């Protein structure tokens, strides 16, 4: 048992350590050493893999321009690897040194983020937004994955830095700090943003994915040193849907049922700050005045003063508006009224303020800057949905009814705009993707439309503040789509196999006809011989090509029979030619019997045909033929299976494609031909008929034989098939257009940012 007089090695959390003490210095040195060693190894491994990854992408690049980007990226990384690695590790070391010195970074700021008022519109570029999204995504994913270990590191570092509160964002070795340090280091690389995003993915894969061991090392060392040795790795209660402050105006946490502590997300905050700068520049907002002054519009017109609506008031007013919408009966006529829905989308902010005023009993004409940004951003999102040509009008109107639920989500958790994995964002993307291929013709039973409609109505009726409902509905939608997809795949497979079979048969018939015609040449064959070759034997050649292929011995034998059969019909002038003919006849009869059996001739019909041939050959040999026997082929003698047509008049050249002959000149414009060639199986297109009606179809298969494009609807049923030139003409005449395969939310955010960056016409 330890002596009671000996000092305890266990650090009491209530007795915070002095950051200036010698013991704390040793502990911090240990943390720095562990971090430096581990991160150096992880970064080195990442750079070893960057070269290989970019080389592989260059080899698989879709065009020369993309390939050049990847090769240029490889050269730039090789040239500047040392400085990027040194900059990254140096920034981490500085963050650790600041931490050691008690200079902790504020949770919602980044080392390279400037004051919001100083952000120029021209500097908030699309590339920066893409980088912000990449950083946001990997930080959020790893903070969630490492939550337990990271919580323990935060608690122990809080103790040794004097009890100052530490969270995921302010932790100098947390995913947010490491990602931002790497982002600063990447500024040394002069590469395209596409290459940068790939490097971010590799940083996620090889560095952030390997910091588990770093956290384990830090926790083990500090626990062994007596810093919270009994700490259980439990996380303070929080939910992924917890409200998150995302900017300088977000000082209050919304008070909602079951509300949890806000989760700080540096990258999401930065993204929202960038959007706020865009909104501010677009509105022409003036800086907020000094103390005692109210906010003013551009031009010096004062805004209404008074207390801003709290988060609880905003959510309460939205819930009332949502309940009013959910009880309204929905008819097909209402759903088709796009103009009315568009008006409701545009007027939601006004309706919200009116509702808040009724709840307060006084007029309310403004909200906080960040809340206004959020309301406007959601409004622009749903305006985009109503204008999105990728969605059928019926689906646009249906999805637009989700504006209020999605505004509530955005106010609860603004990370929805920055995180691609946010459950509400994923559900909207899934609904839009399912709706993209919808058409009334392809959904005759209305199952898909009713499914989307039921999800919309459930959100309107059931969503309060529990964002988990989006996960549940997304899983339910996916289960439904999986069943539909399996059924459609079977139908699609049958359509493709049927089309492939018809094309193979046609190809085989043309090949058989060409072989027969080329061997007959200019010979004047008796009708009996010509009829056998072009009907019965031609079909045997067709079946041989389909079953055994043109490299088979059976196909070679079938062609040899044609030569022998033609030779047997030539005039016999002397003893030698009669001897040669007699030598051929047994083989001809054996081959003919076998071939006729293959093409389903009845035995009696075969014997009748052979009887006619015997009579013909007796004439050839100078023997007397019985009276009444004819040298002509009677068609009724050779009934043909329905599945195989007779080749009555074979041609040497392929038939002229009537569709190609009828095409206009624009069908052969290289721009449209290239667009058709670049189509990928699985892409959706919209076709417009002569009467103006539209239908949507997916490219299911491209024939390797004819090059024709087969299109099917969501049920897997054939909608159309086009030649390359026919499809090019449809593109040229705008009767066919490719639907964008990018996720709805991504397309919407790109369009919104572009719209905000474009000055409005006065």
DSSP strand content: under 5%
Number of strands: 5
**pLDDT < 50 runs, ≥5 residues:** 1-16, 106-124, 234-264, 285-305, 331-336, 628-656
Which class do the helix and strand fractions yield? Answer: mainly alpha
- Strand sequence of the main sheet, in spatial order? 4-3-2-1-5
Mean pLDDT: 76
How would the global form be characterised? elongated
Query: Main β-sheet: number of strands, strand sense, barrel status?
Result: 5 strands, antiparallel
Count of alpha and pi helical runs: 26
Note the gap between the termini.
84 Å
- What would you report as the Rg, rounded to the nearest angstrom? 38 Å
The percent of residues in helical segments reads 55-70%
Protein name: DUF1631 domain-containing protein
InterPro entries: DUF1631
Organism: Luteibacter pinisoli
Pfam families: DUF1631 (PF07793)
Short summary:
With 762 residues, this protein is mainly α. Helix content is 58%, strand content 3%. It has helices at residues 22-59, 64-100, 126-145, 147-160, 175-186, 193-206, 212-224, 266-283, 311-326, 332-335, 338-346, 348-360, 369-387, 393-400, 403-412, 423-436, 447-462, 468-520, 527-547, 553-568, 575-598, 603-620, 658-662, 670-677, 724-732, 744-757, and strands at 684-688, 694-702, 709-712, 718-722, 736-738.
């Amino acid at each position: 048992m330890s002596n009671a007089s000996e000092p305890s090695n266990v650090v009491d959390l209530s007795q915070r350590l002095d950051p200036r003490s010698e013991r704390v210095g040793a502990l911090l040195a240990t943390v720095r050493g562990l971090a430096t060693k581990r991160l150096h190894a992880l970064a080195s491994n990442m750079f070893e893999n960057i070269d290989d990854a970019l080389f592989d992408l260059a080899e698989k690049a879709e065009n020369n321009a993309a390939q050049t980007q990847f090769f240029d990226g490889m050269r730039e990384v090789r040239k500047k690897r040392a400085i990027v690695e040194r900059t990254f590790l140096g920034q981490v070391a500085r963050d650790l040194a600041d931490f050691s010195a008690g200079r902790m970074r504020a949770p919602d700021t980044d080392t390279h983020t400037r004051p919001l008022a100083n952000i120029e519109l021209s500097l908030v570029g699309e590339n920066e937004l893409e980088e912000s999204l990449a950083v946001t995504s990997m930080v959020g994913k790893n903070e969630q994955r490492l939550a337990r270990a990271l919580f323990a590191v935060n608690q122990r570092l809080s103790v040794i830095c004097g009890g100052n509160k530490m969270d995921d964002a302010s932790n100098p070795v947390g995913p947010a700090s490491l990602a931002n340090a790497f982002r600063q280091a990447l500024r040394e690389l002069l590469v395209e943003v596409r290459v940068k995003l790939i490097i971010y993915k590799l940083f996620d894969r090889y560095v952030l994915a390997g910091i588990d061991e770093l956290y384990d090392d830090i926790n083990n060392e500090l626990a062994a040193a007596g810093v919270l040795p009994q700490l259980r790795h439990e996380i303070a209660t929080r939910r992924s849907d917890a409200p998150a402050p995302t900017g300088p105006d977000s000082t209050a946490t919304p008070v909602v049922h079951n509300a949890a502590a806000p989760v700080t997300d540096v990258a999401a905050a930065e993204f929202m700050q960038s959007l706020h700068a865009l909104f501010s520049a677009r509105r022409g907002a003036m800086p907020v005045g000094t103390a005692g002054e109210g906010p003013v519009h551009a031009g010096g017109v004062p805004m209404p003063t008074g207390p801003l609506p709290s988060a609880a008031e905003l959510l309460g007013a939205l819930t009332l508006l949502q309940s009013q919408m959910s009880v309204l009966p929905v008819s097909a006529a209402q759903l088709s009224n796009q103009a009315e829905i568009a008006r409701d989308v545009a007027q939601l902010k006004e309706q919200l303020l009116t509702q808040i005023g009724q709840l307060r009993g006084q007029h309310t004409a403004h909200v906080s800057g960040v809340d206004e940004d959020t309301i406007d951003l959601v409004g622009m999102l749903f305006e985009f949905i109503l204008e999105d040509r990728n969605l059928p009008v019926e689906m646009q109107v249906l999805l637009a009814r989700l504006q209020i639920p999605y505004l509530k989500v955005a106010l609860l958790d603004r990370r929805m705009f920055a995180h691609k994995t946010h459950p509400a964002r994923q559900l909207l993307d899934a609904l839009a993707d399912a709706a993209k291929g919808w058409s009334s013709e392809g959904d005759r039973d209305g199952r898909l439309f009713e499914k989307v409609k039921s999800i919309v109505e459930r959100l309107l009726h059931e969503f309060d503040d529990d964002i988990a409902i989006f996960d549940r509905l997304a899983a339910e939608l996916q289960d439904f789509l999986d069943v539909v997809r399996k059924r459609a795949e079977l139908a699609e497979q049958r359509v493709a196999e049927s089309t492939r079979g018809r094309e193979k048969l046609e190809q085989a018939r043309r090949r058989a006809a060409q072989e027969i015609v080329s061997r007959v040449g200019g010979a004047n064959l008796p009708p009996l011989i010509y009829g056998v070759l072009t009907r019965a034997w031609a079909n045997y050649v067709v079946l041989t090509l389909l079953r055994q292929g043109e490299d088979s011995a059976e196909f070679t034998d079938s062609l040899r029979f044609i030569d022998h059969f033609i030779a047997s019909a030539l005039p016999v002038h002397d003893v030698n030619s009669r001897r040669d003919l007699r030598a051929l006849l047994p083989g001809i009869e054996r081959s003919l019997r076998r071939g006729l059996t293959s093409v389903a001739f009845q035995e009696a019909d075969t014997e009748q045909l052979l009887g006619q041939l015997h009579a013909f050959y007796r004439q050839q040999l100078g023997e007397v033929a019985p009276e009444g026997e004819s040298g002509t082929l009677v068609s009724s003698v050779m009934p043909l299976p329905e599945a195989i047509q007779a080749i009555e008049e074979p041609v040497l050249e392929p038939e002229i494609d009537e569709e190609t002959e009828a095409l206009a000149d624009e069908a052969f414009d290289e721009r449209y031909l290239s667009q058709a060639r670049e189509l990928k199986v699985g892409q959706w297109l919209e076709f417009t008929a002569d009467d103006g009606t539209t239908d949507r179809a997916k490219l299911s298969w491209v024939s390797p034989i004819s090059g024709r494009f087969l299109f099917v609807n969501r049920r897997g049923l054939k909608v159309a098939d086009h030649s390359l030139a026919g499809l090019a003409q449809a593109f040229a005449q705008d009767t066919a257009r490719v639907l964008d395969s990018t996720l709805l939310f991504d397309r919407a955010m790109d369009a919104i940012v572009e719209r905000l960056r474009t000055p409005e016409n006065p």
